[in-house]
Design a protein that fits this description.
heterodimer; A: alpha/beta; Rossmann fold; 3-stranded antiparallel sheet; 9 helices; B: 0% strand
Chain lengths: 244, 234
Amino acid sequence: MSPGRVAASILPLEFDSVGYTVGGRPLVRELSFRLEPGLRTLILGPNGSGKSLTLRLAHGLLRPSSGSVRWHGAAPERVRGDQAMVFERPVLLRRSVLANLEYALALKSVPRRARRDVAFEFLRKTGLESLAQRSARVLSAGEQQRLAIARAWATEPEVLLLDEPTAVLDPGAARSIEKLIDAIAGSGTRIVMTTHDLAQARRLADEVLFLWEGRLLEHARADEFFDRPESDRARAFLRGEPMW
Amino acid sequence: MRDLTEAFSTALRMILGGDPELLEIVRLSLEVSTAALFLAACVGLPLGGLVALLRFPGRRFVAILLNALMGLPPVVVGLLVYLMLSRSGPLGGLGWLFTPTAMILAQFVLIVPIVASLTRQVVEDLWEEYESQLRSLGAGPLRAIPTLLWDGRYRLVTTLLAGFGRAIAEVGAVIIVGGNIAHVTRVMTTAIALETRKGDLALALALGLVLLGMSLGINAAASLVTEFARRREG
């Protein structure tokens, strides 16, 4: 899978005046930005600011009501094979841990004979090897999230979208997920992730998209955003002040 | 009252002693209903999946129709299958009327809506939970059908058990298309109807007890499967 990738990158990701409206209520408004290769992007903002929607729009699970989303000129659903997404509450199949990975590999047309080896490779990388035969649904929240990440990583996506991957985890489990994300970024996968955990964002981000009420207020390098936020909203958000 | 007690103890002796006539009837019942269930599963599981996930015009109508057909009166099914298989009917040339094959066909028609309709419900519920995730992994609705049938396997087993219970307990359809011919098409329900009318309460009671035991067994199996699934998958 990897060799072909060099030739055909799906980056940059471009949002052009994207709006997303449900029942007459605009949830995302005039969203425009461009994500280049090589950086780790953290999408920040209070609840309801449109972080998850932005990821789902990028992934092609939602269609914009207006504007366009393009991956190197292509519609999201056409290049979904080069992206993977980890949901805040990932849905694991009612099968074993190993079968969950093998299923994702089967959908990516990895030959049957190679699947088990690839699956075990990624179970090892995520520290789940000893749980391979366990039923995925009875794992702890942290293990389930790790499995979801392993399943996404195993398909060797060029871009990995993570929606609040540590929101429901205790600090220890959250840190182990962060380490995993570090490793994935280190292997060359582009990370785009939402979080409302500022300390985590500082640790992981190269650049930040700051959303507020469905609008993009800032798109900046991480150090600039955290040291010198331009908008009042961002300053208030960073100070942990109420946002209304 | 003494007659009843005597019939009851004779019935018990027949069951415990493995009375050959009783066993023959029970075996035919099991064979016919198992075959009907197998065919109904082959058709009903994929059909339920398709109706659940594919978007086509009239999908809602098909779903409602399948639901309505769950309550098909067995005698009506018997009549329809009889008309199809009778000598002047479209399938008359097969010569199936008054054979176990006709009974299998009738029970199949009776339970295929049950299997399909309950499957549709199971698959729809799972799709609601799985859709985003499966689309993300690269599976569209068609590819998702086998996935969801497998992930819903415990609930589907209880669905199949429900179908089997309905098939083996019905009398109206098989008596019409099978004819209740001794040693050929006589199954538990038709035998009970006949023996009761003849006054041979012992055999009727024995068969009734076996049938009752089976339906208890089926329900116990269904709740065991559910319990097992709950423990395994939370």
